[in-house]
Amino acid sequence: MTYYTPAPRNPKLPPVRINLLSDTQTRPTRGMREAIARADVGDEQIGDDPTVNLLCERVADLLGKEAAVFMPSGTM
Questions:
Q1: Considering its fold, how many domains does the chain have in total?
Q2: Is 16 a domain residue?
Q3: What is the rounded distance in angstroms from the CA atom of residue 16 to the CA atom of residue 4?
Q4: C-alpha to C-alpha distance for 37 and 70, rounded to whole angstroms
Q5: Number of Cβ within a 10 Å radius of residue 59
Q6: What's the pLDDT at 31?
Q7: Is residue 33 part of a domain?
Q8: How many Å apart are CA 39 and CA 29, to the nearest integer?
Q9: Is the pLDDT of residue 76 over 60?
Q10: Beta carbons within 8 Å of 44's beta carbon, 6+ residues apart
Q11: Got the DSSP string for the chain?
C-alpha cells in the first residue's frame, strides 16, 4: 500500500503505519462495520448525537467547565 504524506519522509524515521490521508482510502473491517451498525446515532448539528454529546460532556468535566464544544481543527 502506498502512503502519501505532505512532505518527503525522513528515512531515519520509522515507516508510516497509519494512513490518515482520507477516510475513503481504507475499508472498514467486519468488526468496524458491526460497531457502526450498533452505534447510537443522531445529528450533531442540532445536538442530537449521543456520542458527540458524551464527548463534549467528558471534555467539559476534564477541564472543569460547564460545557464544551469539540472542534476537530483550529479553523472550524
A1: 1
A2: no
A3: 9
A4: 24
A5: 14
A6: 95
A7: no
A8: 15
A9: no
A10: 52
A11: -----SSPPPTTSPPP----S-TTSS---HHHHHHHHH-----GGGT--HHHHHHHHHHHHHHT-S-----SSTT-
Q: What is the extent of the structural domain holding 67?
A: 40-76
Buried/exposed 37-51: b ≥16 CB within 10 Å, e otherwise = eeeeeeeeeeeebee
Residue, of 10 and 32, whose pLDDT is higher: 32
5: Cβ–Cβ under 8 A, 6 or more apart, which residues? 16
In a domain, 67, yes or no: yes
Q: How many whole angstroms separate alpha carbon 65 and alpha carbon 54? A: 14
Cell of 12: 531515519
Whether 49 and 41 have beta carbons less than 8 Å apart is answered as yes
User: Does residue 5 lie within any of the structural domains?
Assistant: no
Q: What is the pLDDT of residue 34?
A: 96
